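User: Can you predict the 3D structure for this chain?
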Amino acid sequence: MTATPGLTIEGYVIVSAEGNLADADRLMPDALKYKGDQAFFAAALDRADLIVHGRNSFEDQPNSPLRRRLIVTRQVAGLAPAPSNPKALLWNPAGASFEDACTRAGVTTGTAAIIGGPDVFALFFDRYDTFYLSQAPHARLPGGEPCFPDVPERTPEQILSAHGLHPADRRILDAEHDVSVTAWRRG
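Assistant: Here is the predicted structure, written as structure tokens:
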């Protein structure tokens, strides 16, 4: 994929100590739900113009039905309306470019928030302007679903770094549980 002029690409994930974003059943457990991180995530998505995620990823927030979105799937040839959501398009990257999907969704400027899963995050590794990596170092999800392909062989930080992103700033979201978010920026 090439750069999309006028569109800022941001990624968002919270991971366990092992770098997992979900448990073995591919569900986000309560062990990864922290009030500070959820508030950070909700505010970011409220500012975004487009949400991009796979069929198992979603944000389940009050404003979710109001957001334009691309749902990444292999179930369509290229692009198709999502049957249950008039603000969503089903997108198969093998059959349509991201630029075409954005144009069809009516979003060609602003911010696209990429919220997972692992293969969806990987589609944008070389396009992220910023990736917000939230970490819950005391949460354990052995056998869970890694946030990126190649985790646990490499850490999320090593993967982001390998794609030209650098840690720019870190802030604490939940001091009691040591939950933080680091903005990994390109350049």
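The first helix runs from residue 35 to 47. Residues 166 and 184 are 5 Å apart (CA to CA).
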